[in-house]
Amino acid sequence: MHYRQLGKDGPQVPVLGLGAWPLGGGMGTIDEAAVIATTRAAIDQGITLVDTAQYYRTSEATLGKALKDGYRERCFLATKVSGDFSRQAIIAAMENSLRQLQVDYVDLYQIHWWSDHTPIEESMEAMARLQEQGKARYLGVSNFSAAQMGRALQTAFFHSNQPVYNLFERGIEAVDLPFCAEHGIGILAHTPLAKGLLSGKYRPGHRFPADDERATMRRFQGEAFVHAIAAVDQLQTVAADKGITLVQLALAWLLWLPAITCVLVGAKNPAQVAEHLPAADVTFTPEELTRIEQILAGA
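The structure assignment produced for this chain is given below.
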């Protein structure tokens, strides 16, 4: 596993992290034994950054069981406060997360998204207070734009932002990435496989179970789904020519950018974890990158 520094003066973290939204059942029901086996397989193989959230259904509670038997000490544990970002709600959310995770502190505590309902100054003051109390080693935000990060930084420094970033969703490139580089903020890229679109597993007409969030997402319906799969098929040829899987190509393409500190990829079983690992060692030629860009331009 390779490591990169999280923001300025932050810790070294692995370039691949385990995103725990699927482990909470957000993309279909998964039993507790599978959560424990998947989490421990990830940590055993060097994917030691584990990211969850208050919002991730049963994720924190099941991770609390998975991180017993010495696994907590071996991982960089991140979670998020979700929904209500008032001072009191943040403090209560932290206490609940610690209780669910069965830990005394988390390594990274993040504000899950921007909210206009609570002044960011109040939210960041509460976050900084939790850090002072030793309940969070580092602070972060998630899904913040450059302007939102700039305002948050006026109250307290944070080491990371966690935006969506993948081959199909590249909105952070023009403004947000340069802002983070300028201010020493690390990037934890979430949704790197575009909710499974970049796994290469699905064909037009696929029906997702009702308990899977993708069952109602526009990108997985009708012509939008057909169009995306056409681009995926072309990307598959690039991956095949390199002798890697499409999943590995999608993850490696993100890591090709030094500004990306860690790519948070979900998994539902140890086999999926194992497939992710080789991505950390994949490199690209200029010709391959041009070929990928041409495919994406057409998509």
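Interim note for the steering committee: The two ends are 32 Å apart (CA to CA). The longest helix spans residues 222-242.
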